[in-house]
Amino acid sequence: MRFFVYLPLLLSLVVPLVTTRMARWLPPDLAARTATAGAAISAVAYAASLTMLSLTLFDDLPPLSAFDHRSELPRPVPGWLAAFAALALLAGGIRVVADLVRRTWLRRDLRAMGVSRAGIAVADVSEPFAVAVPGRPGHVLVTSGMLRLLDDRERGVMLAHERSHLLRHHHRLVAITGSAAAMNPLLARVPALVAFLVERWADEDAAARTGDRQLVARTVAKASLAARGRNALPVMGLHGSRAVDRVAAMTEPKGPKRWGSLAGIVALAMAQVLATGLAVAEFVAVAGSWLGLVS
């Protein structure tokens, strides 16, 4: 085990850079899906590499430890590195569970804020915010403060935006990238990027629904300025990620799409899959050499 087992770890360093570049040139729906897939593949490859490194600890335990002096055996990784990989894998697993628990409790708290009628729950709260609360069924949670803030047309934008989150299942993309970054901290920048992309996606859906991009831009700006303190809520709120950039995207002419930017993230994902496969083959060969002595 000399090279391929480490390659997925090294490639993870490049994923946020390539994903960010890709997101500049693609429609937000395609960019969000691609970024999520890339992060998921990277997290699985990262976990697989750590698992293989961790399993080499068994060569220090009986009965395998009795064969350490055999020079003809392929050498696994140093014991200290295997122990570090095991700790990193355990820490990643704990972070993933903590992230899922946090999301579950937060969703439960949001559902408790109001009773849904016809897919809309109104909370008697003066602070203006509106979020899409996923579930079976999902619904839009909006406060009385937000309803007072927006006029009739802006309320239509708000509902179109939040319903887009529910219809497109944006919470799944957000949860996947959150778990991926929890497992693989090298992906820490990807969840914020996907959060922004799904907001842009919902903005575009709202613009298509209302036929007025300027109205969507005004509504996003208005809601974001009024609800600055609510950024701790899960994505899928009208006031969500990077409002200034979202307003600019609504008001400025659309730039050209560069479909070639997909090539980078696709090539990176394929490289991680290939490296992981080769690392597994190498690990199986090393393990077979050692276990053959026991049998």
From TrEMBL:
Gene3D superfamilies linked: Metalloproteases ('zincins'), catalytic domain (3.30.2010.10)
Native species: Kribbella ginsengisoli
Membrane-spanning segments: 6-23, 35-58, 78-98, 262-291
Keywords: Hydrolase, Membrane, Metal-binding, Metalloprotease, Protease, Transmembrane, Transmembrane helix, Zinc
Assigned protein family: Belongs to the peptidase M48 family.
Record bears the keyword Transmembrane helix: yes
Stretches of the chain forming a coiled coil according to its record: none
Recorded superkingdom: Bacteria
Keyword match Calcium: no
Cofactor(s) listed: Zn(2+)
Record note on cofactor: Binds 1 zinc ion per subunit.
Domain Peptidase M48: 122-181
Protein name: M56 family metallopeptidase
